[in-house]
Amino acid sequence: MNIRITTLLLLLGASSAFAQTISGTSTTVSTLTTGTVLDARASVSPDHRYVTIGIRPQFSQLDGIDTFSNVGTSLSGGASLPRTINNGFGANYRPAVVDNITFIEKDPTLLNRKLPAAELKATTLRQAAAQLGQSAKTNVVLSTRALQQANIDDKATFDLALEECTLREAVIALLAVAVPHEPMVITADDNVIFLTTQAQADLQMVSKTYDLAVLQARAPRFLKKAQELAARKKVEPVYSGDFFSKPVNPPTIKPSFDSNDIIAQITNHVRPELWRVNGGKSDITQHGQKVSINAPASMHVFLMQ
Questions:
Q1: Is pTM, for the whole model, over 0.90?
Q2: Cα radius of gyration (the chain)
């Protein structure tokens, strides 16, 4: 992360015990991946007795999702915030979870690139990934360490037939054939599609703060998705004679919208093993109408889908 802090000189008059003039003071914090995330400016009261500082967090898009939701504010340079959803909060909504694949799209245009129909015979995971990257004029990179730790054989061969589709659809099809039972995380950024396992991605933690109302509005969606994923993990098809066992319908989750219940909803139903209250390393705390979460990037994407 590249952090730049720029502070202009504060000039104070010396004719009295109080500050009389201020030439100009501002502090800007920027990061390589998010741009400006904090803007602080000082001003002097009319009677020259006080110096006040206005702190304005800027809209940011870390890992493809909103860090701040400031309705009615603007980006530096006067640009307006992106579109809003029905509840009025700033958002960039994209379907983020497909089956057991989580997409972190810092550059959503990459996965939307069109690919021609193709038929790959006796190919391997790495060969197929390279072929998809070549067709999309981008780089599709696999995490060797993640594959090794998950005991995934990247030299195993298989056939893959693709109709004309997007790179996103092609990656989903590839992983469904090559690693059907391994939860994966796909990051799209800077002309690179990076494929890794959920377990490897979980090692990198990201801290974000959300409006409570935003999480409550999305709770029905992410709880339903969590229920579906839990059901898939609980009941795997088992071959018995001439048929496969069918998963039973899991109990329906009826989330409460009590503001005091959002933490329990998340820690009890959305990958419970990750949260510190259940022995994991991720944290979630509520401060009034704000909820702070320190968890893997894929968790933030899951909650904001």
A1: no
A2: 24
